[in-house]
Amino acid sequence: MKRFTAVSAAAVIVGLAVGAAGCGKYSFSSLRARKAYLEANDLYRAQDWRQAAERYEVAAANDPTLPGVHFFLGNSYDNLYKPGRPDDPENQAFIEKAIQNYQKSAESDTDPLMRQRAMEYLVAAYGPDKLNDPSQQEPIVKRLIAASPNEPTNYFALSKIYQDAGRYEEAEQALLKAKEVKPNDPTVYTTLSQFYNSQGDFERTMEPLQQAANLTPDNPQGFHLVATYYEEKVRKDHRLPPAQAKEYIQKAIEAEDKALSLNPDYTDALIYKNILLRHQARLETDRDRQAALIKEADQLRDKAMELNRKKATGQGTGSR
Q: What pTM was estimated for this model as a whole?
């Protein structure tokens, strides 16, 4: 998980200032909390995590209702934590304090977005790079899903937990649920494709990948991605029958032709089509046809090289 940006912290400060302008009197404790909070936000932006945590602690102790105070306190401790030091008591205390404050934010913050972020960071805290406790992750992600049932990234997170645990049927079901709630989101299909690819199921890999490309018909990158998967399969799977290899090569060329129809100067597509034509020539028995394919491949390669040369010298924009 990425930490909150300075822009996010600044937004909280603005919200605090607006709230302060609308209120009359503050207690000494409340004023102390706001002063510490503003100081902590400045330290947070400067990535001085230790000092930021100290000031957020003061703010939270004097006014635990400040917007996001527990999240930013937890995130400051999270940034102080260094993975791979299980025997360092201070280091372990950092991640424990991060979790405690993320939990407080998830349970009590008035901003739904802040509660969502807190739960996301809780999931990460129990992930393989930190405490590596997936049993703690699953219920948190399910809470995220309950709070935002139409957000596909929550199902992606649940699927990843199941994959790491070897629960592949449940992992697939989580991704299919993501597709159900967001059927027009290309990311749903590319994520499902990656899952099937990790399972070694090539045919099921390609179906959602093609669907993702079709959902953005004006984007050549989606069609190029389809072609790269076919090319890799042909290049690496030496057990493929020649007829099957030819079919995959043809589908890949069709995908690159679609990409190039959208952007004729798309250098990656030019380079891959050049490679695909050479694969096709390798399987061709007719000498004249083979020579024609190599000639076309050379032309595509030369065009891609020229476009890259112009891009390097500032004479053109190259590929998208």
A: 0.73
Q: The tokens 């959902």 sit on which residue?
A: 215
Q: In angstroms, rounded to a whole number, what is the distance separating the alpha carbons of residues 191 and 258?
A: 22
**Whole-Å CA distances, 182 to 148, 161, 225:** 12, 20, 21
Q: What is the 3-state secondary structure (H, E, C) of the chain?
A: CCCCCHHHHHHHHHHHHHHHHCCCCCCHHHHHHHHHHHHHHHHHHCCCHHHHHHHHHHHHHHCCCCCCHHHHHHHHHHHHCCCCCCCCHHHHHHHHHHHHHHHHHHHHCCCHHHHHHHHHHHHHHCCCCCCCCHHHHHHHHHHHHHHCCCCHHHHHHHHHHHHHCCCHHHHHHHHHHHHHHCCCCHHHHHHHHHHHHHCCCHHHHHHHHHHHHHHCCCCHHHHHHHHHHHHHHHHHCCCCCHHHHHHHHHHHHHHHHHHHHHCCCCHHHHHHHHHHHHHHHHCCCCHHHHHHHHHHHHHHHHHHHHHHHHHHCCCCCCCC
Question: What size, in residues, is the chain?
Answer: 320
Q: How many CB atoms lie within 10 A of CB 13?
A: 16
- C-alpha distances (whole Å) from 61 to each of 30, 50, 58, 164 are 10, 17, 5, 38
Query: What tens digit of pLDDT does each residue of 171-220 get?
Result: 999 999 999 999 999 999 999 999 999 999 999 999 999 999 999 999 99
- Distance of alpha carbon 285 from alpha carbon 219, whole angstroms: 35
From 160, 205, 214, select the one nearest 186 (Cα to Cα): 214
